[in-house]
Amino acid sequence: MLMEKFLPRKPRLTHTVPGWVEDPEFFVTLCCRPPGENHLCQTPVAIEIFHTFQFYHQTRACRMELLVLMPDHLHGILKVPDAVNLTSWMSDAKRWIHRKTGVTFQENFFDHRLRSPLSAQQKRNYVNRNPVRAGYVSRPDEWPFRFTRSDFETGGAGSLNSQRAILYEATKGLVALPSSKPKTQHR
Q1: What is the band of 34 on the pLDDT scale with cuts at 50, 70, 90?
Q2: Structural element, H or E, at residue 54
Q3: Mean of the pLDDT values across residues 150-172?
């Protein structure tokens, strides 16, 4: 631990979007603290998170394309208007979700601007398949904690089939991550 004080730190990159890019699309990941516990895949928490991002979608602070909740992190694909600062907006969202649910997120978040339709499709596939890779379901559409743009636009937690989510929580024991899973994180 003492040596860490003397090791050079990797410089932070500034992610300014070029002025010619209109309403950039981003892939984002928010991780919970502590890792390895089920913070997000609980029906009441999932509904609050959905409503938070739905509010931002409806007030045009962003356009949610895809949101997938995993037990200890979430992935999103979203478009952000030029006037919105992504870092400030994410801080506000994390603070609000914490206030409503008690979930604590890591200080920072991961973001990647999607620069082409191919890159966007690859990230959508990656996000959709995350619960499959983790071994929770066999097909992405079986995951009850997955929301698409149409869910955010229809006004209800459309794809969160509450009965499916509650049954899933009960049968899979998502109070904690399955202990048989390797400790690698799927991001």
Answers
A1: very high
A2: helix 43-58
A3: 63
Q: Bridge-partner residues for 114, per DSSP? A: 25
CATH annotation of 22-172: 3.30.70.1290
Query: Which parts of 5-154 are beta strand (E)?
Result: 25-33, 63-69, 73-79, 104-105, 110-114, 146-148
Q: Long-range contacts for 106-110 (Cβ within 8 Å, ≥24 apart)?
A: 106/30, 106/31, 106/32, 106/33, 109/28, 109/29, 109/30, 109/31, 110/28, 110/29, 110/31, 110/187
CB atoms within 10 A of CB 90: 20
pLDDT higher than 90, residue 72: yes
Average pLDDT of span 80-106: 92
Interval 149-173 mean pLDDT: 64
